[in-house]
Specification:
247 residues, 1 helix, eight-stranded antiparallel beta barrel
């Protein structure tokens, strides 16, 4: 075979191969749908159950004493503006609650019980009865409030509280000859504000103020057919410093 014939044959083979590739089968392109991974909701740093304790100081109560003397149920005498019994003193508190968090907003209920040395007494001139001592004492107090706060910066919360309060009180009237006590309960509203700061994921410290406007009740001291009646005013202010542990 001549060189010219060999070149011609080679050219034909190459062109035929090119045509075969050009017209051959092409594998289909399969589009794969993207995989979407849903992010789990992020739980706020404040969300969850917690419990704690506090040291409290009660002050600002102004129970203006007035006494009515009853004889067989009928008022036979009255004394007003006899002095102020200003409930004050220190107490300890225990509390528990739960919080939800939405962005920077934090809210939830809190139940607190506190008790301690919160009392006061005054002496007044009882006339023919001699020296008269009147003492008021707060045995314990329970509050249930809704706390609503805002995280002003990571780990720092400012909050307000509003709810109900109920207290157990003793009112004692004493003379040189006799001492009579009457216990009663009073309920009302509780409102306040505070700030809380986290030390770490579990522990935080708080300080707050709360005002309790409790109802005016009646204390009755009876000796035979004679009775002395007073209507104590038990509203007061309270400051708290304490710690919380989050679960």
């Amino acid at each position: 075979m001549s060189l010219k014939s060999l070149l011609a044959a080679s050219s034909a083979l190459v062109l035929g191969a090119g045509a075969s590739f050009a017209g051959g089968a092409v594998s289909p392109v399969i589009e794969v749908a993207p995989i979407t991974i849903e992010e789990a909701p992020v739980v706020g740093a404040w969300e969850g159950a917690y419990a704690g304790g506090s040291l409290n100081y009660t002050f600002g109560a102004e129970d203006e004493v007035g006494l009515s003397l009853l004889d067989d149920g009928q008022e036979v005498g009255r004394g007003t503006d006899l002095g102020d019994v200003k409930l004050e003193g220190a107490s300890l508190g225990l509390h528990a609650g739960y919080r939800w968090q939405r962005d920077q907003w934090v809210f939830g209920p809190e139940l607190t019980i506190e008790g301690g040395n919160v009392d006061n007494s005054i002496n007044i001139d009882g006339g023919d009865a001699g020296n008269v001592n009147i003492e008021s004492e707060l045995n314990y107090l329970v509050t249930l409030v809704m706390k609503t706060g805002y995280e002003v910066q990571p780990g720092t919360l400012i909050y307000g509280t509003f709810g109900i309060a109920s207290g157990d009180f003793d009112y004692t009237l004493s003379t040189d000859d006799v001492s009579v006590s009457d216990g009663f309960s009073a309920s009302g509203i509780a409102a306040g504000f505070g700030v809380e700061k986290k030390f770490n994921e579990k522990m935080s410290m708080f300080a707050g103020y709360q005002y309790r406007d409790l109802s005016k009740e009646t204390a009755t001291f009876t000796d035979g057919t004679d009775s002395v009646v007073s209507k104590p005013t038990t509203a007061h202010s309270n400051i708290r410093i304490g710690v919380n542990y989050s679960f």
